[in-house]
Write a structure and sequence with these properties.
With 500 residues, the chain is α+β, with helices and mostly antiparallel strands. It contains nine helices and four strands, in the order H-H-H-E-E-H-H-H-E-E-H-H-H.
Length: 500
Amino acid sequence: MLTFLKKSRATVPLAVGLLLAGCSTAPSHQRPALVVPAAFKEATPLAADLGVWQTARHGGASEDGLAPSAIIPSAWWTLYGDTTLNQLQDQAAITSPSVEQAVARLRAAQAAVASSRAGLFPTLGASGSGNRARNASSSNASAGAGINSSYSLGLNASWELDLWGRLSGQVDASQLSAQASQDDLAAARLSSQATLAQTYFSLRAAEAQVQLLQDSLQVYLQSWELTQNRYRAGVVSSADVAQAEAQYKTTQVQLLEAQTTRTQFEHALAALQGQAPALFSLPVTGQLPAPPQVPGLLASTLLEQRPDIAAAERRMAAANAQVGVARAAYFPALTLSAAGGYRSSTLSSLLSAPNLFWSLGPGLALALFDGGARTAAVESARAALDLAGATYKQTVLTALQEVEDNLVAATHLAQEQQIQAEAVAAAQKALTVVSNQYKAGTVAYLNVLSAQTTVLSAQNSLVSVQNRRLAAINTLLKNVAGRWEPLQAQAASAQTRMAE
């Protein structure tokens, strides 16, 4: 009976500790209040029926306890229908340095989770030692006097009970930070993909401008030769010849600049794929891909997919957990420790029963005065939480602005492209008329020069508008995390309801 009572008393601290373990001192996590419309301002009003704003969220937990990163649709760039772009994206997915950096940061964050989680478990250690020493003795002592030997072999264990949630709060903070790193990886992949796509579009636009300038050079050379022949025939003055030559030379300079631009974009594509520019080349086509159609129904719930918003929200939750960790420092820490082993002055009898020793008991530690260090730590954690909350709000508002900007840009640039194509056709028609008049001798060469310049300028502007439209749509796709298809079925359903 006495033995039972002794064992019961020994287990009281453990039972109390287990009952109190895991009590969290972290405040309730609340996201900042945001007034976010259900639909974008620049989208069709029908999108307002597609749902309300919800915070970017993760899916179910993975095997390592971390929530999977924000879902980015695979191969979203296939919307452009460009085989070369598809091949470049596939290669960049393997060798992109920016993605490799994000992967390394994620591995470090996952290691931090494992490190913080280890604090929840007991630690066990082993020790062994052997020592032989001679103590000071009188000069008359024998040669062996004062020499002592000591040998020991033992195990020790300790376990800090997580009474106030300090350890579990640290684990939560690490897990949330790792989830943010997962979303950072998704954001890095998305950014790398969008940057590669835009660089590719710019390269094709530069190629198109090179082809325009090369075609124009041939026309200008013919005009220069025609003007020289007419000058020899005494029909025109030398001024016409000089103007034709100046136009030809100026266009040569523009061609060199366009070729330089195209080459630099090719170098940029090589770097995005993790290759040296000398080892990378891309055949010239001069053809820009057709831009995908932007849907008229586009709801703000698409931003739930954005990994940067999800990462900002996870970092805010991690900062909230750190407030609890800082608060837990006000409470005592209870540690259970145990040690046992053998200690003897002779090695041969070390493992005998009389040399056995052991110890077992709890330890309680509480800082009574720290000069305000704990208060400062809590205030610092709260400030970090406020900063994370403000960053989250700014991320959401910036995302909304980016989508609105590129929605209106994509819409207006589609109209600009149509009008600019009509301007090119009108300029070419005017050039044909003026060229015939010049050959008939009814107008001066200056009229031809002006008409040719207008045509080249209109054609260059058309290429520029096409490139800007592709850039706007590409950025819009990035803004909504890759695709807008997930809500198309809802959009069709909403439109059907309104029609009824």
